[in-house]
What does this fold into?
Amino acid sequence: MANTFEAPTKPKRLLSLDVLRGITIAFMIMVNNNGGPGSWGFMNHAPWTGLTATDLVFPTFVFVMGASIVFAFESRLARGATKAQLAVHTAQRAVILFALGWVVNNFPLFHWQGMRFYGVLQRIAVCYLVVGLFYLFDQRVWTKVAALIVALVGYYVLVRWVPVPGAGMPGRDFPFMDQRMNLVSWLDRLLMPHHLYLDWGGPDAHNVRDPEGLLSDLPALGTALLGLLAGLWLRAERTAAGSLRTVQQKALGLAAATVSCLALGYLWSLWFPLNKNMWTSSYVLVAAGYSLLVLTLAFIAVERFGWGKGRSAWLVYPWLVFGSNAIVAYMISELLPGVLEFIKIPTSAGHHTTPLPWTQTHIFSHIPDSGWAAFAYAVFYTAVCFVPVWVLYRRKIFVKV
It folds into this structure.
């Protein structure tokens, strides 16, 4: 059928997707613990508009989540689960992800004043719930494409052409894409005053914003939908003509999608700049393009050349370990600093420090180049987080929320 991709009756796990998930979570841990001010530019987010490698991590994780929905849902349906059961499980998982995100944001103090409710896992939860239920009850491709267009174009119309109450029209009464005044931030201030990522208060209360706010969930759904469409393409066994779809054909399709997303995204950025903080529509397309690029390379390496099997297994092993328990790895990386704050190490000056600052001062600060010192610390911290996930992998324990 023209509106759907025909899928195999016995779904199989796509190793290259696990590899991409593992690469993404490992790099996410590194950039979230990048060693401080001396770190290289690409290990930090762009201040406002623009794009760095760090800005690609979060959307890639959302993209992979969208692609994984296809394989996970079809696998459970093939094992006899009903759509009603899957719908309940999807809602439950979204609630758990949201709760875990709330814990990550506020651990270990949990003070109501200034408590943040938006966040990374919260956005993943929203995208998983909406896109998961959408796919579960409507597997037609054209509806996903239509929803993608509505999300991206609709978001642009809202941000560009809807006046901000009390401020006026973007591009006329204040600069379009102004960091301090835009519809996205205005809505977050209205709904969550004093509970946002950047909450300065006082006379500069108009500066308040959150990079995972409510309205920017709309284009984030577009990121998940692009991942879902990639998953549908990869899972399809046959072409519209009925012939078997080869690995080469799937790789070419991914490559074509890569070029298309990058070209459209960079072109749109001339009018709607790339911006991770507001998750602009052009950013969605460009980030998806780079996600598709890495997925294409992983797909060719794993599915075409057999990386991950036999003597070449070591080439993808670290990424499979991280990818097998990605949420666990993320939770460990986010909660560990708070836990280590309770360990006090005496200093020569009679004060106390904690383990992570101690390692930076006594180990990595001795590296002459500040960029390499910061990078070494990021690798060290990621390796520490790798250990418990590796133990789970060795024991074949895969935590599903």
Notes: The chain has one domain: 15-394. Confidence is low (pLDDT under 50) at residues 1-11. The first helix runs from residue 15 to 32.
